[in-house]
Amino acid sequence: MSMVGLFWITGTAAHIGAPPNEPGPGVLLTEEGLTGLGADQGGRWTWDGIRRVSVVGAPVRSSVGRAAGLLLDTVITAAFGGVDDGPAMFVRVETPTEEVELTVYAPTAFYGPAECRLSQDLLDAYVDGRATPAALLDWGRTQ
Fold this sequence. Notes:
Blueprint: E1 2-4, E2 7-9, E3 14-16, E4 26-29, E5 33-37, E6 43-46, E7 52-56, H1 63-79, E8 88-94, E9 99-105, H2 113-128, H3 134-142
Antiparallel strand pairs: 1-2, 2-3, 3-4, 4-5, 5-6, 7-8, 8-9
């Protein structure tokens, strides 16, 4: 399993955000489109039926702020003996007939601004038909 930008990639799947634990929420990325996972957010959208996909609320920090925030988050979680699901972020799927917001969890406490921008550019390329998730999926199988 590997994280690349806002994506979590395994040998068999790619997700926006962390892959969900049953019955938690998540978004699966496929060659055909997006699939909402979890008890309250099922649904499938094909790339050619989507106008825009955007990730809202991703935790973004500069590299210094990112390191300090990660340390603080780790200390607080450990001090209270908890396990953190990570910050929630939202995948907004816009089609000609609907707008749906799906919950996913960030697998890291903070992303860098460039990671978010490049990940959004990649999602835009999927929607525009300039690229497909094939490269992410192939990379996951070979790593």
